[in-house]
């Protein structure tokens, strides 16, 4: 089908096949939804990473990992970036928040090895993956980890909001 440009006023419309039109509209809607989720997650990650206590920081770490694992599902570059950037931002702010709130020697002894191991895993995967295709086992393992982390966000969010403490206080 030949593409014809039909100009109406200041907006130019191109005649597309119905399949391409539907793909473009649905892709735009999914990208819009994912961008909204990414923006909300980025703001939540900032608030959680800079909060006091272990529960908000744990929630921030899980949120960052969930966003990075969930980005695997989407095919579009923009859709993946809208989840990867807030995911990496949450993990980065988690490290900054840990340093900001008085990084004692014990905390540094825990945080630095975890960051070095994580960086090593990411660097190794970045070097290995372009030349090799991962087996289906690793894809399934990532799906199981993703689902486990998504489910764990529910009690973590309830704990951060104080609902667990409120319900515990109802009994006296």
What is the number of beta strands? Answer: 2
The low-confidence parts are none
Shape: globular
Helix content: over 70%
Classify the beta-strand content into a percent band. under 5%
Q: Distance N terminus to C terminus?
A: 73 Å
Description:
By secondary structure, the chain is mostly helical. It has helices at 18-49, 54-70, 77-100, 105-128, 136-161, 163-170, and strands at residues 5-8, 11-14. A hairpin with a 2-residue loop joins strand 1 and strand 2 (11-14). Helix 2 runs antiparallel to helix 3. It is globular. It starts with a strand and ends with a helix.
Q: How would you sum up this structure in a few lines?
A:
With 172 residues, this protein is mainly alpha-helical. The chain has helices spanning 18-49, 54-70, 77-100, 105-128, 136-161, 163-170, and strands at residues 5-8, 11-14. Strand 1 (5-8) and strand 2 form a beta hairpin.
Tags for this model:
172 residues; mainly alpha; globular
Blueprint (SSEs and pairs):
Elements: E1 5-8, E2 11-14, H1 18-49, H2 54-70, H3 77-100, H4 105-128, H5 136-161, H6 163-170
Antiparallel strand pairs: 1-2
């Amino acid at each position: 089908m030949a593409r014809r440009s039909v100009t109406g006023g200041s907006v130019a419309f191109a005649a597309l096949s119905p399949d391409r039109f539907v793909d473009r509209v649905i892709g735009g809607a999914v990208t819009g939804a994912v961008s909204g989720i990414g923006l909300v997650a980025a703001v939540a990650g900032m608030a959680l990473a800079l909060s006091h206590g272990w529960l908000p920081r744990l929630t921030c770490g899980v949120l960052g990992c969930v966003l990075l694992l969930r980005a695997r599902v989407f095919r579009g570059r923009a859709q993946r970036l809208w989840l990867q950037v807030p995911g990496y931002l949450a993990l980065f702010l988690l490290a900054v928040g840990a340093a900001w709130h008085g990084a004692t020697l014990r905390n540094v002894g825990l945080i630095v090895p975890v960051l070095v191991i994580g960086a090593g895993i990411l660097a190794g995967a970045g070097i290995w993956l372009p030349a090799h295709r991962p087996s289906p086992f690793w894809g399934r393992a990532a799906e199981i980890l993703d689902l486990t982390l998504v489910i764990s966000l529910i009690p973590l969010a309830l704990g951060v909001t104080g609902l667990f403490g409120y319900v515990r206080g109802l009994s006296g």
